[in-house]
Amino acid sequence: MVIGGLQKFSLLDYPGHISAIVFTQGCNFRCHFCYNPMLVCPVSRVGGKLKYSRAEKDEKRKDHFSLYKEDDLFDFLASRTGKLEGVVITGGEPTIHPDLLKFITKIKKLGYKVKLDTNGTNPAMLKKLLAPLTRRSKGGNKADKKNNPPIPFLSGGRLVDYIAMDIKAPLEKYGEVAGLPLSKLSWRAVERSEAISVKSHSPEIASSSRGGTPRNDSFVNLEKIKKSIKIIMGANIPYEFRTTVVPGLIKPEDINKMGEMINGAEIWYLQQFKSNIKLVDESFMGQKSYNIKEMKKMAKIAGQYVKKCEIR
């Protein structure tokens, strides 16, 4: 696992549990408002100092390297059993790492509960993580066994005990907010929706949004986003959806469209945009956030679609 950092203690990130937070390195999105550019962008050493780059040519996952040794992480977790209750795995985007299942299995063997944060772009991975644990057969090809080794039986349950997924934007604005273009299949789906003005959200606009033109192998696949929502809502484990509400990207009327995407969900958090820290898109630094009155109005709208909506 490519690890970008470790927070050894948290009372906030895993609801109801004392936890540690593992930050994976690397992400397949370039959300303008993300406050973890050091986890999203490739990291290199320059003159003995760590430096992250926003250059598109450097955005391949192989350019990431682990800033925290995995052995050191598991030594720490082993020493904290009985004191910590859970481990939060966040990023970056954890599901871009093919060894995530193996990594979580090692954590579960220590007796910890696991919370996963994700952007929902890898429903195939989520389906494996949220499936009830059973013994696997000895079948399968060598490549699959290498990337996803057989998971030992762990007294019922699932590898992930709690999951949080970001809902970035209404479907037609996903590329603009995530800093990537929508895939061709996604645009065909958008064009089929009578409620969406395709002209006002063209692929060219999405691909040339303020974060720059993404590399050719990075697109937002809306079908995968929708599949992940469905998997999470049907997994029978605690979950949450969350949206960072950024003026200029998310408008009050967008809340209705996002609410329809997760209609009937347990809980949806609207998060206030923070601009007083380093962001992936530096042009967003210092921009004004929605005030609490505006946030409450949007939360009231969101509450019509989910069982509970709160502001963070």
TrEMBL record:
<feature type="domain" description="Radical SAM core">
    <location>
        <begin position="13"/>
        <end position="305"/>
    </location>
</feature>
<keyword id="KW-0408">Iron</keyword>
<keyword id="KW-0949">S-adenosyl-L-methionine</keyword>
<dbReference type="GO" id="GO:0051539">
    <property type="term" value="F:4 iron, 4 sulfur cluster binding"/>
</dbReference>
<dbReference type="Pfam" id="PF04055">
    <property type="entry name" value="Radical_SAM"/>
</dbReference>
<keyword id="KW-0479">Metal-binding</keyword>
<dbReference type="InterPro" id="IPR013785">
    <property type="entry name" value="Aldolase_TIM"/>
</dbReference>
<keyword id="KW-0004">4Fe-4S</keyword>
<dbReference type="GO" id="GO:0003824">
    <property type="term" value="F:catalytic activity"/>
</dbReference>
<keyword id="KW-0411">Iron-sulfur</keyword>
<dbReference type="InterPro" id="IPR007197">
    <property type="entry name" value="rSAM"/>
</dbReference>
<dbReference type="GO" id="GO:0046872">
    <property type="term" value="F:metal ion binding"/>
</dbReference>
<protein>
    <recommendedName>
        <fullName>Radical SAM core domain-containing protein</fullName>
    </recommendedName>
</protein>
<dbReference type="InterPro" id="IPR012840">
    <property type="entry name" value="NrdG2"/>
</dbReference>
<dbReference type="InterPro" id="IPR034457">
    <property type="entry name" value="Organic_radical-activating"/>
</dbReference>
<dbReference type="InterPro" id="IPR058240">
    <property type="entry name" value="rSAM_sf"/>
</dbReference>
